[in-house]
Amino acid sequence: MSDFDPIIKKISDYVQNYQANEESLQEAKTCFFDSIACAFMALEHDQVKKFIDIDYIKNSQGSVRVVGTDLQTNVLDATFLNGALIRWLDFNDTWLAKEWGHPSDNLSIILALVDYLKSHRNKSLNFKEVLNYMVMAHEIQGALAIENSLNKEGLDHVALVKIASASVGAKILGHNDHQIKAVISNAFIDGQSLRTYRHFPNTGARKSWAAGDASAKALKQVFISEVSDESYPTALSAKNWGFNDVLMGENPLKLERDLDSYVMDNILYKVSFPAEFHAQTAAEAAISLSSDVKEKIHDIKEIKIFTQEPGVRIISKKGPLNNFADRDHCIEYIVAWCLLNGNLNSNSYSDSSASDENIDKLRKLTNTVEDQAYTRSYYDLDERAIPNKVVVSMITGEVYEKEVMYPLGHKERRAESLPFLKEKFEKSIKKADIREDELMKFYDEKNLDSINIYDLLNCIYK
Q1: Vertex 363: Cα angle to 413 and 366 (nearest 5)
Q2: Model confidence, pTM
Q3: Torsion angle, CA of 70/76/79/82, rounded to 10 degrees?
Q4: Which of 413, 129, 419 lies closest to 266, judged by CA?
């Protein structure tokens, strides 16, 4: 049998041997609770409730729970639903590099397997183990994103969620070296999602459940590997039929970095604004200008947004915006809303909010351009800036401008972010009507060894 492709071997070795340090585990704890907050808040929205009410899921026999609900279902559908809830509002953590993504999407498979192992295999985990799995999943997805651009090939980043979830899922279930490599190889050759649903004219809500779907598919491969000895060692490199030749063209997948905890240590949190992350600093800049211009909207001559190259490519949009998913990925809409209202929340993208005719008036006055210095700062791994500058020029000759280099939630502003992240979690508990006092004790506990993961999980399910 052929040797496994080096990337497959590197990922397999990592998940079998890695142990994060205390600092990285504490960051993973912050990320854990932030992800749960996003799931709680998603439950307010009618569309996501329809997914929870899908007949075949509700009537599926199982004991694996779904965040914020009293639903118990099979482990695959619990993975799917947990992923959909965490991701639904575009408010969970973010990773920006050559590829983009939301590494906490992988928490969906971890949560489901913690429940599954306890109820089906009489195996218990501790909280530190759960956090370590989070660090590893973040690292696999994020490190691949640093070196490879799937989006330039028309592929969606959830392909990397599938790889990370499959790798960590296999480790959680106790697979041996060959089984883990087999799972990873199968995840690479499993059909990968196109980015169709993220772009005009097809932008839609699939982007809110695509990662949950990828994690569930990864888990299916994990279970198959327990009964099937098949593997595909050159899944990436096989001539004509491998992942690289079929999907990556002239840019074969690379993974030259050492795998450690870089991604978790530098993760970006969406603290205040549920908006695509390349627009976070634009939202902050526009909100800071709102008090100066919102009473002078009809005197605005031009709005210019200076952004990074990905900001232009991904979220700069002209023409009609058809739905929530279109609007929260449109930098011009976000800036217009923030200038008009001085705030931004998930309701800012609703049909009723978008009916304000001043939004489209401002969009027509807006020109979004790349600032090459911003792009360099964006790709510099020592800076990881996400800069935007909003410049509002009035017919009177007045000019208002604001530049923001690092968003709240960036590592450069981590200490500033922590109180806001806690407030975000507290608000989410109230909205979900979950046991507030018990959960806040877990949130505030610094000693990871003293947190019982099952007591904690019992508080996040109804």
Answers
A1: 70
A2: 0.90
A3: -40
A4: 413
- Residue in the structure block whose two tokens are 């992923």: 83
pLDDT value at position 150?
Answer: 97
Chain centroid to CA 452: 26
Sequence spans of domains, the chain: 6-265, 277-404
16: pLDDT strictly greater than 80: yes
Of 261, 312, 276, 278, residue with least CA distance to 384: 278
CATH architecture of 277-404: 2-Layer Sandwich (3.30)
Domain over 6-265 is classified CATH 3.40.190.10: no
Buried b vs exposed e over 414-453: b needs ≥16 C-beta within 10 Å?
A: beebeeebbebbeebbeebebeeeebbebbeeeebeebeb
Distance CA 34, CA 138 (A): 14
Question: What is the average pLDDT value for the chain, to the nearest integer?
Answer: 95
Token pair of 326 as six digits: 């279109």
Which H or E run contains 21?
A: none
Residues 141-152 pLDDT 10s:
999 999 999 999
Query: Which two three-digit tokens encode residue 19?
Result: 């142990």
| Segment 243-290, tens digit of pLDDT | 999 999 999 999 999 999 999 999 999 997 788 889 999 999 999 999
Query: Which residues lie below 8 Å from residue 398, measured CB to CB, with a gap of 6+?
Result: none
- What's the pLDDT score for residue 318? 92
Strand spans (E) along 72-223: 72-73, 95-96, 100-101
